[in-house]
Write a structure and sequence with these properties.
Number of helices: 13
Largest sheet: 9 strands, mixed
Order of helices and strands: EHEHHEHEHEHEHHHHEEEEEEEHHHE
Oligomer: single chain
Bound molecules: nicotinamide-adenine-dinucleotide
Helix content: 25-40%
Strand order of the largest sheet: 13-12-11-10-6-9-8-7-14
Shape: globular
Length: 381
């Protein structure tokens, strides 16, 4: 694969009114390594065409269906290099499998699939295809999340003892799905979303952040899932206790009925010697507190940060970076990995970029949390 041109991306989802598809497009193009050239942006051919127009791509490459996109693109001399999946969850496995089987690498939004069984099936497809597969757990792209991860790995916090992760949103406090609001409609439908509501939609991000930052696996959990809004078919509120492989304990609190909250993701990790505190709504500051010592506020562009964090900061201090830039970090790493793969390197994904393993663990987390809640007891992971 040549490295003198931009990588060509085909997007599935992201039609008019979609939330995350347009973010993928912006993030992918931010570093000048990737361009959107094709897509099946909607299940409606007209809306797919309309999205293609708004993205200023060749109208012939705004396809009516993702299968058509794969079929036509694989025969083009200037074919797409990879497929991005930004659809409701039930399509993640079929689109990813079809893309990989057609020879295209994949960037998928989370959760990896709709069910745990599907994730196991996808893991096999990825292994058989031997192609790069990345999962956009966006928060892994923030410079200060990389700093937090580095601090845990360096041992400076000492043995990790306690973790508190919360992800609080309020937008599903009312039965929005009954008004036709499309993001709420598919997320509340088990057939389109999968069996885990809030626990799948944002719980998987919180769970991923815990394992990503601490480098520790969750080994058992005790979760309580509730549907607070009357008539809602899936959970919209969840509390869980976690046990980690080194004996640390964790508390995970996620909700989409936390009235007034926007995107309140916060992670605190406590070690023997110090602790860290990071909030997604204030992502350019990381609080580090030392036992009997000073409290530090580390800034996203600080020259004192670890090399891992400095590698992904783009702007001088005081210039805020956020969600799109974090997303773009994942795309930059994916682009480099795809080029390396094209040059013959097997398994080129860097450890900082979530892949199929994170996808399977996320789906296992949903499945285990539901099982624990039903049994009202601890379950092994
Ligand atoms: P959305 O409803 O806003 O958008 C989904 C898009 O998929 C729509 O444009 C819809 O027309 C399109 N679509 C549906 N069926 C299709 C088909 N057969 N072919 C092509 N397109 C089709 O949903 P959203 O909020 O953008 O979520 C999409 C995915 O992204 C979900 O899996 C969600 O979990 C994930 N997500 C991730 C993040 C993150 O931070 N990484 C944030 C939000 C959503």
């Amino acid at each position: 694969m040549t490295v003198t041109r931009k990588l060509r991306m085909g997007l599935v989802g992201g039609g008019p009114g979609a939330f995350i598809g347009p973010v993928h497009r912006m993030a992918a193009e931010l570093d000048g390594k990737i361009e959107l050239v094709a897509g099946a942006f909607s299940q409606s051919p007209e809306r797919s065409r309309a999205a293609g127009e708004s993205f200023r791509i060749d109208p012939h490459r705004a396809y009516a269906d993702y299968r058509e996109m794969l079929e036509v693109e694989r025969k083009r001399p200037d074919a797409i290099d990879f497929v991005v999946i930004a659809t409701p969850n039930y399509l993640h496995l079929p689109v990813a499998a079809a893309a990989l089987e057609a020879g295209f690498a994949v960037v998928s939004d989370k959760p990896a699939t709709a069910t745990y069984e599907e994730a196991l099936a996808l893991e096999q497809v990825v292994a058989k295809a031997g192609l790069p597969y990345a999962l956009t757990h966006t928060y892994a792209g923030y410079a200060l999340v990389r700093e937090a991860r580095n601090l845990c790995a360096s041992g400076r916090l000492g043995e990790i003892r306690k973790i508190a992760v919360e992800y609080l949103q309020g937008w599903l406090s009312a039965p929005l799905e009954r008004t036709g609001q499309k993001q709420a409609a598919w997320r509340s439908d088990p057939a389109l979303n999968g069996p885990g509501g809030c626990i799948g939609d944002i719980g998987t991000h919180a769970f991923h952040l815990v394992e990503y930052v601490t480098g520790l696996h969750v080994t058992s959990l005790n979760a309580t899932l509730r549907s607070v809004v009357v008539g809602r078919l899936l959970d919209d509120d969840c509390n869980a206790f976690l046990r980690l492989e080194n004996g640390a304990s964790g508390v995970l609190m996620v909700s989409q009925v936390a009235a007034g909250e926007g995107n309140g993701l916060r992670l605190r990790v406590y070690g023997e010697k110090g602790s860290i505190d990071w909030r997604q709504e204030d992502p350019n500051r990381l609080r580090v507190k030392w036992l009997d010592g000073l409290e530090e506020i580390r800034h996203a562009a600080g020259s004192y940060l670890s090399a891992d964090a400095r590698a992904v900061a783009r702007l001088p201090g005081g210039h805020p970076e956020g969600f799109i830039e974090a997303f773009a970090v994942l795309y930059r790493e994916f682009a480099d990995a795809l080029i390396a793969w094209g040059q013959g390197r097997p398994n080129p994904l860097p450890p900082t970029l979530p892949g199929i393993e994170a996808g399977v663990r996320g789906m296992r987390f949903i499945e285990r949390a539901i099982a624990s809640s039903r049994a009202e007891s601890w379950v092994e992971f």
